[in-house]
Amino acid sequence: MGIVGAGPAGIYAADLLTKDETLTASGTPVSIDILDKLPSPYGLVRYGVAPDHPRIKQIQGALHKILDKPEIRFIGNVEYGVDLKLEDLQHHYDAVIFATGSDRDRPLDIPGIDLPGSHGAADFVFWYDSHPDVAPDWHVEGTSVAVIGAGNVAVDVARILAKDADDLLDTDITDNVHRGLRAKKITDVHVFARRGIAQGKFTPMELRELDKQAGVEVIVYPEDFDLDDASLAAIEDSNQIKTNVKVLQNWAIRDPRGEGKRLHLHFLHRPVEVLGTERVEGLRTERMELTGDGDVRGTGEFVDHEVQAVYRAIGYLGSPATDLPFDEDRGVIPNDGGRVLDLDDAPIPGVYATGWIKRGPVGLIGHTKGDALETVTNLVADRDGFAPAAAPEPESFIQLLEERGVRYTTWEGWQRLESHEESLGEPQGRKRVKVLQREEMTRIARDEA
Q1: 353/358 Cα distance (integer angstroms)
Q2: Mean pLDDT for the stretch of residues 148-169
Q3: pTM metric for this prediction
Q4: Within its chain, how far is the Cα of 171 from the centroid?
Q5: Which pLDDT band holds residue 20 (cuts at 50, 70, 90)?
Q6: Shortest CA distance to 287 belongs to which of 270, 304, 306?
Q7: CA pair distance 261, 145, nearest whole angstrom
Q8: Mean pLDDT, to the nearest integer, of 133-151?
Q9: Secondary element (H or E) of residue 363
Q10: In what helix (H) or strand (E) does residue 266 lie, and over which residues does it extend?
């Protein structure tokens, strides 16, 4: 089997394949290659989780145990669509699972969104997580900035923008990120949510973290509070929503603490225009009102906010995969329960999808387990209809990469790179410091001089 994408979705799928009783009972050894375009595994756990979230990053320990299985082989620095096409994978594997995730910002179609100083959250997250394919320098503009969105990514971005850079020195951030964040002059971060306090998509843990930063005061505006019938029903049905609302209400009624920096949470504000001529100078929002069914409508009242940068965090999209259909609106590979569909909505034999490229960027990391189970269950059920791979031998795939001059990395190489990052952190009393450049990562992983 071949899996494209070495994030949690692909790794969980590989784990389930090694455990499937139908496959193991057949007496045929299960052999799985997990390919990734980066020299390192773990996907968004390594490059999409905020550096000050070590609890979430600990998931790497569980993923490490899976990748350490003898039935699984990690092959990094191999880019599907560039180094390989679908026919190559079908030649070497009985079945292929695409687990390429969501790596693009969902666009926001409002005037001024393309002005300098307007950014997508994915670009900023990849920068502060030291993604090797993102430019190492980022100028954090302005003293007052806006974050558009009401999910965990928006909360993460707002927290990092408000946070003292030195508070991140016990994480794995690189020196360039620390310098960039330390140079920022931000005094106010404004987060704008289109809907009400009961419709926020952030988790209580992420929300509470906003108020645990030294020198940062969270401000919530009582006039933004409104609860319609649908909101009250949601509070009764969901402990998460009930907790979020209670936390926000407590923040709204408490006395100001007079901290140096302020993080403002605005609800029922719809962004309608980024203001400015040559660069971002402000954000215009429309006041919204609840309609009773959980939705909102505009009131015709507009508010201008003076900000020098805008970060939109309204969702991610997947990227098209060469030789496969793609749903541009949803940013996913069309599928039915993980079975990839052709242009006539018929399943493509032996081709599957899992994770965010299958269902869109919804849910937490743990939700990818159930998603992978559905895909793997259908794959196993379909196995008798697969055309057997023409060259299934593990050595033949490596030979193909070498013939094409692909400087692939291995699981042993990743462990070498991991040890190197830990050694970089030791002099500073840190657990590890990431290697920033792809070329250096590849060289260390391949043990090249």
Answers
A1: 5
A2: 94
A3: 0.93
A4: 18
A5: confident
A6: 270
A7: 12
A8: 95
A9: none
A10: strand 261-266
Q: Give the Cα-Cα-Cα angle 44, 101, 404 (nearest 5 degrees).
A: 95
| Count of CB atoms situated within 10 Å of the CB of 202 | 22
| DSSP secondary structure string for all residues of 299-318 | EEEEEEE--SEEEE-S-EE-
Nearest to 266 by CA among 336, 191, 196: 191
Assigned token pair, 172: 């794995």
**Tokens describing residue 241:** 């929503």
The burial of 53, by beta-carbon neighbours within 10 Å (0-12 exposed, 13-18 middle, 19 or more buried), is given as middle
* Residue 27, pLDDT score: 66
Kindly state the tokens that stand for 345.
């909505």
What does the block give as tokens for 80? 């599907």
Percentage of the chain surpassing pLDDT 70?
99
pLDDT digits 0-9 by tens, 167-180: 998 888 899 999 99
Contact between 128 and 122 (Cβ < 8 Å): no
Residue 427 has pLDDT above 90, yes or no: no
Phi, psi values for residue 368, rounded to 5° = -70, -20
Q: How confident is the model at residue 365 (pLDDT cuts 50, 70, 90)?
A: confident
Provide the β-strand partners of residue 312: 120, 148
